[in-house]
Amino acid sequence: MVDDQHMAIPAMATRIQALAVELGFTMSCDNLTGALLRVLVASKPQSRILELGTGAGYSTAWILEGMDESSTLTTVEYDSALAEIARTVIQDLRVEFHVCDGAEFISSHHHEQYDIIFADTWPGKFHLLDEVLSMVKPSGLYIIDDLNPQPNWPEGHQSKVDELIQMLDQRKDYHYVKLNWSTGLMILTKK
Q: In 3-state terms, what secondary structure has residue 55?
């Protein structure tokens, strides 16, 4: 089986990728992660979804394609130039864009609950992890990627990833699966 054979890439994602490359941004999720996000989101109709780390909106486009009309997506990005690409290309009323520090967003929205959280940036993944996990509804999903070594990792990043995985391994309030696939993923669901 070829993982990406006959994969339907969202048209918005293709446009976003081109604009991101022009800006020099190469850290968007890969197509396999995008396809997984689309499927997981499609399995939860009428969902509230949180994406931490919009980037240029590549994963946002995949998430949107999986959403039904009753679902909503809140997406957070610190870099205003990247967020502008997403906001320009994505014209969808189901999306609420926040251009701010992820830690500030988490601190001011910690009382909110989401059916799915995709944490693709430092806040909510490498710090403020407990706060974000408390934002996942019962039977909700928490999804992270980039857990296998990546060529763009800064020196010393592997130890941070190892520590994150070890912390998640020890949690008793979530079921989880590790996927040594794509860029390395973990999916957790609240017990």
A: coil
